[in-house]
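Hi everyone, sorry if this is the wrong subforum. Our group has a chain we'd like a structural model of before ordering constructs, and none of us has done structure prediction before. Sequence below.
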Amino acid sequence: MNTDDLSWQAHHYGGPHPRKADLLPEHGRLDLMIRAAEERGEWFCAERAAQELSRRGAFGRAVEVAEPFAALGWRPAL
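Answer:
Right subforum, don't worry. Here is the predicted structure as tokens:
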């Protein structure tokens, strides 16, 4: 994963479309979003997973999901 890949995802919806990522937690698939974020570097999954984890009070886990993106300097993750 690098910032060019993340920029492409943000511009072209690489990986799951953001609206699909919004629906996954509603269908009990937060685990899929976290796995896609961690294994494939899917930004929209990471973003939505971190939001959902925070909503559930799992702040440490939310930071873990977003941290690799923040470490790259990806502003939305910071």
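For your construct planning: The chain has one domain: 3-71. The longest helix spans residues 43-55.
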